[in-house]
């Protein structure tokens, strides 16, 4: 029986990721460097340990760049792009439906809490979540399962009783490793990335019937990584 939904944040609740990619891609162009999606995808849904787009031009390409100015430029561009960005389709409907059905609702994000709260407050979504776990709460972010395990613990449920809503391969891997069912709703950037065999996936939550999805997940075991 499904007792909870746990949402990823960046790229899932609101598409911050496409704006980040555009901001970095355009900044790289100013230095004659192409930032491919394949390269940038290494830091989607996780930390910057595998690929740090702020430092790559200096650490790997050895370009004479003022990193502080570069960081401010990218963040300013991203902020401007995000001014009109809204909640992704189907998210509010699923949040309301879950609350109406008495399900518990959690959020598990590899971002910092202040970043997440900034958007939750603007979008008036914070009150939906009974448990929020972010990079501030764990030693390891996604694709490590720790964020999901902590959120499950905070909600007082087991993995097979929860559905994770994710948009990235790193997030999908974290959810499955933690033993959750996982629904993948990739955004413009992540829809071209490789996820492996995913049982429930669509371009947005609008394509799912809430009750049918819960019933489907209740009847089957959580996905396993290939």
Secondary-structure map with pairings?
Layout: E1 4-7, H1 17-29, H2 37-40, H3 56-59, H4 67-82, H5 91-100, E2 104-108, H6 113-123, E3 131-133, H7 146-155, E4 162-166, H8 169-177, E5 181-184, E6 200-201, H9 210-219
Helix pairs in contact: 1-4
CATH-derived architecture of the largest domain: 3-Layer(aba) Sandwich
Based on CA atoms alone, the radius of gyration comes out at 18 Å
Task: Please list the strands of the largest sheet in the order they lie side by side.
Answer: 3-2-1-4-5-6
- Report the CATH topology name of the largest domain: Rossmann fold
Which parts are unreliable, with pLDDT below 50 for 5 consecutive residues or more? none
Distance between the termini: 24 Å
Largest sheet: 6 strands, parallel
Order of helices and strands: EHHHHHEHEHEHEEH
Secondary-structure class: alpha/beta
Instruction: Figure out the total of helices.
Output: 9
What percentage of the residues does DSSP assign to strands (E)?
5-15%
The CATH C-level name of the largest domain is Alpha Beta
CATH superfamily of the largest domain: HAD superfamily/HAD-like
Shape: globular
Q: What is the number of domains?
A: 2
Mean pLDDT: 94
Compose a concise summary of this entry:
This protein is α/β, with parallel strands linked by helices. The protein has helices at 17-29, 37-40, 56-59, 67-82, 91-100, 113-123, 146-155, 169-177, 210-219, and strands at 4-7, 104-108, 131-133, 162-166, 181-184, 200-201. The protein has a 6-stranded parallel sheet with strand order 3-2-1-4-5-6, with helices on both faces.
């Amino acid at each position: 029986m499904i007792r909870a939904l746990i949402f990823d944040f960046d790229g899932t609740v609101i598409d911050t990721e496409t704006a980040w990619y555009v901001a970095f891609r355009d900044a790289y162009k100013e230095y004659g460097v192409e930032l491919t999606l394949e390269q940038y995808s290494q830091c989607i849904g996780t930390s910057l340990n595998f690929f740090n787009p702020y430092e790559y031009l200096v650490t790997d390409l050895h370009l004479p760049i003022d990193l502080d100015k570069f960081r401010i430029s990218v963040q300013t561009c991203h902020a401007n792009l995000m001014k009109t960005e809204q909640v992704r389709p189907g998210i509010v409907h699923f949040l309301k439906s879950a609350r109406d059905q008495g399900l518990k609702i959690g959020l598990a994000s590899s971002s910092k809490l202040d970043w997440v709260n900034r958007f939750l407050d603007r979008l008036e979504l914070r009150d939906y979540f009974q448990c929020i776990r972010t990079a501030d709460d764990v030693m390891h972010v996604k694709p490590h399962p720790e964020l999901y395990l902590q959120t499950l613990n905070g909600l007082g449920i087991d993995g097979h009783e929860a559905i994770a809503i994710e948009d990235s391969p790193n997030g999908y891997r974290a959810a499955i490793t933690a033993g959750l069912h996982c629904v993948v709703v990739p955004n413009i950037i992540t829809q071209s990335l490789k996820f492996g065999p995913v049982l429930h996936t669509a371009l947005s939550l609008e394509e799912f019937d809430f009750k049918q999805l819960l019933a489907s997940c209740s009847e089957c075991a959580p996905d396993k990584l290939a």
